[in-house]
Write a structure and sequence with these properties.
The chain has nine helices and 22 strands. The protein is of the alpha/beta class and about 425 residues long. A hairpin with a 6-residue loop joins strand 9 and strand 10. The termini are far apart.
């Protein structure tokens, strides 16, 4: 079957349509690893009542933006979706998807420029999580749209230090020195990419784990420490004595302690630009940072506001937030909804929200509208939940002034957005 690709959609697929025998209406067909305006020969893999999924067997007419992928695992690995496209075209696709999502979901016709902040497209990740099987040894990612492990010995979107750490684990694995209890590893490198910590997720606890950590450090002295977690509960395992290792991450906006389990931005090239975009032009008496993490936006805000309130509920991130906070920054451990509901009478000059992929939700968005700060900046990692939340905020009296696409995740479909709102 030959299909024309109409457009790209959020999630990485291209959209085509085909007419089934005896039907009058064409069915939507979703195909990965294609580009808009291409013509492809397609095999149908899944045929539902309202849509179908397929695989491109051959590209019959290629886009001028199609290039050779930069990773030997592309198409098999589930981590990247856009390596077959030039980087300039990746940004075009993301802008187009963002505009359409705002229009379709929230009826927002954004005719102004989407200010775009590109990243070097390779070696940008400072944090990488991988699956592990000890026998026969394999370290890697899930295969595309499956839960089968694909052995991976290099990751071109991860930092050079993380790739050296991956190589070190492979060396120990080939030597039979990786304990059976290990299920996953997460590597996190600092701003200079000369020091890292590793989180190891285990099915159970044993003395072999501590020995593995020591051997890993011998293979790669840049490893500052290893922390062990339960792969089922996510709780820290008390295997080693003493304090868990932490990483110091320096940005133009401050010096951050980041412990194992804490959230921190993952694009090492855009950290400073991203931080400045959200905070640099803001100043005044009182600021509020909701979903504050370790204080990524709170610390630079504290340099220009008399008082800053930072709300974070996750225990590891909150502990780091408390440690990182200057005297005029007040950390509060509560859920965002609980805090905003309780603080309905408080007044802030500026509020920044950086929610997880699920977004704010209707209650929290309405609560922020009721709080009514004159300036509000929404940092989003999902255009669909952003559009849904903007609908509530705009109906609550806000207007959009700026829309920025910050490309924290080149080679993937993920879209990071910064929206400035005023009332």
């Amino acid at each position: 079957m030959e299909i024309e690709i109409e457009k790209m959609i959020y999630g990485g697929d291209g959209l085509g349509r085909y007419l089934e025998p005896g039907e009058n209406r064409a069915k939507a067909l979703f195909i990965p690893f294609v580009l808009e305006n291409e013509k492809v020969a397609v095999e149908i893999l899944e045929d539902k009542r309202s849509f179908a999924r397929g695989r491109a067997e051959q590209v019959l007419r290629a886009s001028a933006s199609r290039i050779e992928p930069g990773c030997p695992y592309f198409l098999r690995c589930g981590g990247c979706q856009y390596q077959h496209s030039s980087y300039e075209h990746q940004l075009e696709m993301k802008r187009s998807i963002l505009r359409e999502t705002l229009r379709r979901t929230a009826k927002i016709e954004w005719s102004k420029e989407i200010a775009t902040h590109p990243s070097p497209p390779w070696n940008y990740r400072n944090r990488t999580r991988m699956k592990l099987v000890a026998s026969p040894f394999a370290l890697g990612y899930y295969q595309f749209r499956s839960h089968r492990l694909l052995p991976v010995e290099q990751c071109p979107i991860s930092s050079p230090l993380i790739n050296r750490a991956i190589a070190a684990v492979w060396g120990l694995g080939r030597a039979g020195k990786v304990p059976q209890e290990i299920a996953e590893l997460e590597f996190f490198a600092n701003a200079a990419d000369d020091q890292s910590v590793i989180e190891i997720y285990c099915s159970s606890s044993s003395g072999k784990l501590l020995l593995f950590g020591d051997e890993l450090h011998q293979e790669l002295p840049e490893i500052a420490g290893v922390t062990f977690f339960s792969s089922t509960s996510g709780e820290s395992l008390a295997i080693a004595e003493g304090e868990a290792p932490v990483l110091q991450y320096r940005t133009n906006g401050g010096n951050f302690r980041v412990s194992a389990g804490s959230f921190f931005q993952t694009n090492r090239f855009l950290v400073d630009e991203f931080q400045a975009l959200v905070t640099a032009n803001e100043q005044g008496s009182r600021a509020l940072d909701v979903f504050a993490g370790t204080g990524f936006f709170s610390l630079p805000l504290a340099q220009r506001f008399e008082r800053v309130t930072a709300v974070e509920n996750a225990p590891p991130s909150f502990r780091d937030l408390e440690h990182n906070a200057p005297a005029n920054l007040r950390p509060i451990r509560k859920s965002a909804l609980e805090f905003v509901t309780a603080m309905s009478d408080e007044k802030f000059d500026f509020v920044v929200v950086d929610p997880p992929r699920a977004g704010l939700g209707e209650q929290l968005a309405k609560g922020l509208s009721k709080l009514a700060p004159p300036r509000l900046t929404y940092v989003s990692c999902d255009p669909a939940t952003l559009a849904r939340d903007l609908q509530v905020l705009l109906s609550g009296g806000y207007q959009m002034t700026d829309l920025h696409l910050v490309d924290l995740f080149p080679q993937t479909f993920h879209i990071e957005t910064v929206v400035r709102l005023v009332r």
